[in-house]
Amino acid sequence: MDHCALFLDFDGTLVDIVERPEAVAIDPALPPILTCLQEQLNGALAIISGRPITFLDRAFAPCRFDSAGLHGLEHRIGDKIFLCDPNDHPDLRDMVRRLQDAVLSKPGLLIEDKGCSVALHWRLAPHEKDFARATAQAAVEALGAQYRIQYGKAVAEIAPSGAGKGSIIEQFLQQSPYRGRRPVFVGDDLTDENGFKVVNIRGGLSVRVGAGETVAAQRVGTPSDLRHLLSVWARTGTLSFDGR
């Protein structure tokens, strides 16, 4: 196991997708399993998420893991941390307010303000999908080339153009304790696909949770299935998957 580096998405991967982002719940057995894997990997375990690092720390407390938040806009390895400052994105801050106004008359549409990015959710109002996508697209076009839009499960997120799970995994792999290890990345959504591509190129193992077209080499059915698999990895001290 000490030759691998494990990267794990959060929503839809470690935890089940919920209608409201703030309502997510963590299986109490999960943090101890991840802590065990972290120790077996000599620290080379990281959560790679669209959530802010502060949220991830609260969710896993008192356990603490290396993390990349906001699709890589912020990250922490050991005691070294880089956080994104919302004040560096005044145009985006203004756009958040405009988006909040735009959905006032659309019950069920949710604006998730992450500080340095913003997500528009339509899970509670699937009939508003076209409106939501068009609104998000118009917003990113107004912001210009410094920002991009990425789609996920019933969500459109606007983030700085440099954000991406593939690029942050590459950064982790250049630093200790991840350097020189075979990457293993588990995710569930469109936002994880560029992470899968990076891992595949590096000869690692990419795993998709759930259905959907993917470049991932392997697949598990649900977050519950993954949590069971992680417990097996922790118990056996190996990151094997179908004999690999």
UniProtKB/TrEMBL annotation:
Record-linked InterPro entries: HAD-like_sf (IPR036412), HAD-SF_hydro_IIB (IPR006379), HAD_sf (IPR023214), OTSB-like (IPR044651), Trehalose_PPase (IPR003337)
Keywords of this entry: Hydrolase, Magnesium, Metal-binding
Enzyme Commission identifier(s): 3.1.3.12
Metal-binding is among the record's keywords: yes
Domain of life: Bacteria
A Pfam family of this chain: Trehalose_PPase
Listed pathway(s): Glycan biosynthesis; trehalose biosynthesis
CDD domains: HAD_TPP (cd01627)
Family matches, as PANTHER family: TREHALOSE 6-PHOSPHATE PHOSPHATASE
Family listed: Belongs to the trehalose phosphatase family.
Name of the protein described by the UniProt record: Trehalose 6-phosphate phosphatase
Originating species: Microvirga terricola
